[in-house]
Amino acid sequence: SSVLEEIAKDRVLKDFYVHAVMTCYFSLFGVDNMVPSPGHILRVYSGVLPWSLALDWLTEKPELFQLALKAFRYTLKLMIDKASLGPIEDFKELTNCLEEYETDWYIGLVSDEKWKEAILQEKPYLFSLGYDPNMGVYTGRVLTLQELLIQVGKLNAEAVKGQWANLSWELLYATNDDEERYSIQAHPLLLRNLTVQAADPPLGYPIYSSKPLHIHL
């Protein structure tokens, strides 16, 4: 707010900022005073803008173009949030929302390289806009970083050797050549499926297999 007060006191600087902001606005929305369609919003969100003199001026300044595109995406996300959560109370709340978008969110496209970077940086939230041609609807996608619980265990070596010994008895001595042999094949605590497959053939399954070899006799 203090910066805005300083700009407001300098008329020349204020006019410069107004001119720059309005040129960016016309590049995104056009000069016609029309309500943008959902298709237009999606195209602008994706960075595909209709040609205009203002667009030529903006694209010559890549950094400013990216800032204008980011401002548009933040505005769209803010509109969606406030449509469900209620309007903004004051300037401080608006600042807090934008700061949260900047630090905790990546708002862009799934196909962007920065989307991958945001995942590697472990951004808490990701947001993208899209269109489903099969359903004919516009979609918003939100991904949230969460903790994933996994189970870690350790098998006793004797338990594995015992299973392999049982395989020897069942296959070689009981002559059970059924592919679905082993009466307790699926055992979650002993990880029986994994240990059975890890045994050396013919008890288990080979890790790899080659192409058929043709031998002339």
TrEMBL record:
Its main location: membrane. It is a multi-pass membrane protein. The keyword Transmembrane helix applies. The keyword NAD does not apply. Keywords: Membrane, Transmembrane, Transmembrane helix. Residues 56-210 form the Pecanex C-terminal domain. GO terms for cellular component: membrane. It is found in: Membrane. It comes from the Eukaryota. Belongs to the pecanex family. This is Pecanex-like protein. It comes from Mustela putorius furo.
